[in-house]
Amino acid sequence: MRPVPFFLFASALFSLSAQAANLDGLEARIDAFITTRQSSPDTGVAVGIVENGKLIFFKGYGKRDKEKNLPVTESTLFAIGSCSKSFTSLGIAMLADEGKLNFDEPVRKILPDFMVSDVSVSEQATFVDLLTHRVGLPRHDLLWYLTDFSADELFERLPYLGFNRNPGKGFREGHQYNNLMYVVSGRAIETLSGKSWEEFTRERIFDKLGMNRAQFSVEESQKSENFALPYAGATLLPFKGLKNVGPAGAINASMGDAVKWVAFWQRGGVTESGERLVSEGKIERLFRRESSEKIPQVGVEFDYGLGWFLNEVAGKKVYWHAGNIDGFSAHISFLPGENLGLVVLTNESGGNVYQLPWKLVQNGNEQKLLPYLIYEHLLGAGDRGLGLLEDNQLVSYLAPLAPQPLSVKAPTAAFATLLKEIVFHDLGYGRLILREAEGSLALDYYGNVMPLTATLFPDVYQTPSLDSPGKTWEVRLQRAGEDLLSVSVPMELAVDPILFVRTE
Fold it and tell me: Which residue of 58, 77, 196, 391 is surrounded by the most CB atoms within 10 Å?
């Protein structure tokens, strides 16, 4: 998809739809889609359609609390995960408007201690590189997801994280989604504003837009009178706090809040009271294509701007983001030329079918995911079927927008009597403990236990993967004679296995 020339972009944002959105028959289609694809009969889903800054359609499905039988409403708080990134990129743009930074100057001009494992990248990387996922650093998500490392500790560990070893994935060579670079961007906001990322975002964005229920922590969310609980199917999950990567995904918001966010963009960066928060020039830059990715298995290609995905639906441009975190999935988008927007919030883990404005193609067959189906209907394009394949595994080809690790917090009963414990370290990933009890071995990564199963090869073991339930990792022990020296674990598949070296 080609970038929009600025003069066309600005006029498109302020244009009014030629006619009212086509809602006839849409509710029945959404009902049928959710009934067909929900992972449990009472999955909570909130669907809202925004036109010209107004909510013209809302419906809540399922339960925000299944045990108490509480419904989803327009005020229900959901975690929106990575939809938070567009708030961080706006914050950077606002500071650029004030002359406090330049999108295209090195990050080190603002953060002199910014460093990654490639010295030249450390010196050259700009905020555009960070915000568009083109630094060359793969996700390394388990580093923040499975530990209690603070944002400062994550920043300090960046120099020890490997770059993608695959061709075409180096610095400015391709799209590599990376939450840690948004942590760096949030740090820059704090440095330049003198406020925490949370304070800056609330005062400069939430308060200006009237996003009165939006906030930043799972603890605060649960103090509300109307919040959704996190689920995987019918299973209640614990809330996952994201303070250490807040600028990448910590926001919780209601449908009412998300509608105000969409309406802000439909007004071209202007609040309802008429205050401009970001210049037209910076808006153009936020939605300019900077990186791209193809997923050939399902016929999908997308572009990425600064905190926004860029696609087309039925020939119309759509700017969007999705969010995933334990027990929640979200979609927020708008069509700049049509003044139409869409919000889908769910308390369901890994809800790709609710999140992505894509029509997937496999073996000549099509599958329309919910945002695509809704937009196609609103635009009066395509057929009126559900567009569903019988193969529900089709979406499994998609790279997850956030990890869905299986975190096993308690050791098995076999380790009740501990016989031996050896500690290993990696400068990036930190501490790993090898434990032996009653003839069995297990690894412990910050309370996440990985039982080891022997293979046919000496010192080579299998263990359940911590980032892909149902899959396994190959773990290798290295020795000098009878002494164990190190353990290698494939905790980030785009780099060589992480080598934890014995420290005692």
Answer: 77
Query: How buried is residue 280: exposed, middle or buried, by Cβ count under 10 Å (0-12/13-18/19+)?
Result: middle
Fold (CATH) for 413-502: Lipocalin (2.40.128)
Question: What DSSP character marks residue 26?
Answer: H
The pLDDT profile of the chain, 504 residues, written as one tens digit per residue, is: 333 332 223 333 333 333 467 899 999 999 999 998 888 889 999 999 999 999 999 999 999 999 999 999 999 999 999 999 999 999 999 999 999 999 999 999 999 999 999 999 999 999 999 999 999 999 999 999 999 999 999 999 999 999 999 998 999 998 999 999 999 999 999 999 999 999 999 999 999 999 999 999 999 999 999 999 999 999 999 999 999 999 999 999 999 999 999 999 999 999 999 999 999 999 999 999 999 998 888 888 999 999 999 999 989 999 999 999 999 999 999 999 899 999 999 999 988 899 999 998 877 788 899 999 999 999 988 766 665 544 444 444 444 444 444 443 343 433 344 458 999 999 999 999 999 866 789 999 999 999 999 999 999 999 999 988 889 999 999 999 888 999 999 999 999 999 999 997
Host H or E run for residue 500: strand 498-502
Buried b / exposed e over 78-116, threshold 16 CB at 10 Å, is bbbbbbbbbbbbbbbbbbbeeeebebeebbeebbeebbb
Side chain identity at residue 17, one-letter code: S
> E strands, 62-128, where?
63-65, 70-71, 78-79
Q: Kindly list the domain boundaries of the chain, sorted by start residue.
A: 6-81+216-397, 413-502
The tokens for 441 are 């071995």
Is the Cβ–Cβ distance between 78 and 347 less than 8 Å? yes
């939809």: which residue's tokens?
Answer: 83
C-beta separation of 267 from 336 below 8 A = no
| CA dist., res. 306 & res. 296, Å (int) | 24
**Does this chain's domain 6-81+216-397 share its CATH topology with 413-502?**
no
Could you tell me if residue 8 is left (phi over 0), alpha (psi between -120 and 50 degrees) or otherwise beta? alpha
- Side-chain-facing half-sphere of 405: CA atoms under 13 Å: 21
CA dihedral sign, ordered 184, 186, 188, 194: negative
Q: What is the DSSP letter of 206?
A: I
Instruction: Read off the tokens for 486.
Output: 């190190």
Q: What is the fold, at CATH topology level, of the domain defined by 6-81+216-397?
A: Beta-lactamase (3.40.710)
